[in-house]
Design a protein that fits this description.
- This protein has about 475 residues and is α+β, with helices and mostly antiparallel strands.
- It contains 15 helices and 15 strands.
- It folds into two domains: about 1-175 and about 260-340, no CATH class; about 350-460, no CATH class.
- The protein has helices at about 1-15, 15-25, 60-75, 90-95, 105-125, 165-170, 185-195, 260-270, 285-290, 300-305, 315-320, 325-335, 365-370, 380-390, 435-445, and strands spanning about 45-50, 80-85, 135-145, 150-155, 210, 215, 245, 250-255, 270-275, 310-315, 340, 345-350, 405-410, 415, 425.
- Helix 3 (about 60-75) runs antiparallel to helix 9 and helix 5 (about 105-125) crosses helix 12 (about 325-335).
- The termini are far apart.
Length: about 475
């Protein structure tokens, strides 16, 4: 059913009359330029576009990745990386199955229960201050190969809630098997949900094995005390205390424990991996990981490439080799949100003088369209105008503007914010090969108080005289 729904949407995007609208939107300043190098040189030609408004498409995921990086630029690296995986044997699921049914027979039930748990956990983390006060967060719902949903969550904490010492790591994160006598329930949950493998020498056929090595680096080494890691995560305490269990035909000890937060594990009874992000080096990797597009593969014979007239069909590329599991299909039919970000990110228009797009209806008189006062206005030109009228605005960079002013799209103007609801601005991406537009982006990222494009010629960045021809 969902494939039919999605196919109808894709068919709408494929229609030539709608592609004209999409392509007009694609090349205005508001839309991110797709990073060069993704298309074959022998296939450059007409492009059938799958726009960023289609959830889960390549352009949509690229936009979300850049939005997340804008949050990092403003508030710093994430402090926690949390992965929550659906437990198909939650009581809320098993108690509502009909006789003879298994969880996989009721993807609707699995989706509803998981979404309720996911909402509860997000409320606990952000409103309940489970780890402290949260400044910003992003989360993404993804689906495993077997179909079960899981959540990737990145939290950026306020200064007074950040992990400041190795003792703080031990306070909120454990990578050890609990004492069964003192903590019997937690012990059973760790054994059930938080032990990796066995893999490696114990089971070389494990799916995590690549070229004879576990891609998750298990088993880890014993460690008497938590240490600061060189990469993105600390080296958690894993003492050789003699505790171990026999599971899946192998004896496993603390070296096989996936890091977890005891209270979250007790509350949600499912696999919840909690990691502290101790370094900024892997920030881009983390965000690219959670915003990755679906796995897929396709091939074509060279004759087919010649015969297709050089058309790059993004919609067909999306359709090819896509896989949608029943839980994901029902999740999307229910309309559950698969992405979340706070604070929101506003993509700021980036265009050269008189190069912004004007929207108009078919049949309208073009002279009347051009004569409209709003036709000459854009986010960028109104930023210049606000700087001319308001000395306080001149203290802000273009990307800082949405934190203090809100953009009213219908009236095409910036308005001073009256409440504390903030928004982060992000200058849309421009590739260096774009020349003038790329250098304009560089200037807007460094020059405050510009009142026109001409101001950039007279700034201290004047040696970058890239606009002298176009302005």
């Amino acid at each position: 059913m969902y494939i039919k729904i999605e196919t109808m949407r894709l068919d709408w995007y494929s229609k030539p009359e709608n592609q004209k609208v999409i392509r007009a939107d694609l090349y205005q300043g508001l839309v991110d330029t797709i990073v060069a190098g993704k298309s074959r040189g022998d296939r450059i030609g007409k492009r059938i576009v799958l726009p960023r408004t289609f959830p889960g498409g390549d352009r949509d995921m690229q936009r979300r990745l850049l939005d997340a990086m804008a949050i990092v630029q403003r508030w710093g690296k994430p402090d926690y990386f949390i992965t929550m995986t659906c437990n198909p044997y939650w009581e809320e699921i098993t108690h509502n199955l009909m006789p003879g049914q298994l969880p996989q027979d009721r993807p609707d039930l699995v989706a509803r229960v998981y979404k309720a748990k996911q909402r509860d956990m997000m409320d606990l983390l952000t409103k309940g201050k489970h780890f402290g006060e949260v400044t910003a967060y992003v989360h993404v719902t993804d689906f495993q190969k077997q179909g079960l949903p899981h959540e990737h969550i990145l939290l950026i904490m306020k200064t007074n809630s950040k992990l400041a010492s190795l003792d703080d790591y031990d306070r909120v994160i454990s990578a050890e098997i609990p004492d069964k006598e003192k903590h019997p329930v937690l012990h059973d949950l760790v054994v059930k949900h938080m032990l990796h493998g066995p893999c490696g020498e114990l089971k070389k056929s494990c799916p995590c094995m690549i070229e004879g090595q576990c891609r998750f680096h298990y088993p880890r080494d014993f460690c008497d005390a938590t240490q600061q890691g060189k990469d993105s995560y600390p080296i958690y305490r894993r003492r050789d205390d003699g505790r171990g269990v026999r599971i899946r035909g192998a004896n496993l000890d603390n070296r096989w424990v996936v890091p977890y937060n005891p209270s979250l594990l007790m509350r949600y009874n499912c696999h919840i991996n909690v990691e502290a992000c101790s370094s900024i080096k892997a920030v881009k990797y983390l965000f690219k990981y959670i915003y990755k597009v679906h796995d897929r593969t396709s091939f074509a014979f060279e004759q087919d490439i010649i015969n297709d007239g050089g058309i790059i069909n993004e919609i067909q590329q999306y359709r090819d080799a896509r896989y949608v599991s029943p839980p994901e299909a029902i999740y999307r039919i229910f309309g559950f949100k698969m992405f979340g970000v706070s604070p929101s990110v506003l993509q700021l228009q980036l265009h050269l003088p008189n190069m912004h797009t004007i929207a108009f209806k078919a049949g309208e008189n073009l002279e009347d369209v051009v004569a409209r006062p709003s036709s000459s206005r854009s986010m960028l030109t109104e930023y210049f105008e606000m700087n001319r009228r308001n000395p306080q605005a001149q203290k802000l960079l273009y990307r800082e503007f949405p934190e203090h002013y809100r953009w009213i799209a219908g009236k095409k103007k910036w308005q001073k914010r009256r409440n504390n609801r903030s928004q982060i601005g992000r200058l849309v991406y421009a590739h260096p090969a774009e020349g003038e537009r790329y250098y304009l982006r560089v200037l807007l990222s460094h020059v405050r108080g510009a009142t026109s494009f001409d101001d950039f010629k007279n700034s201290k960045w004047q040696p970058m005289h890239f606009l002298q021809r176009g302005m």
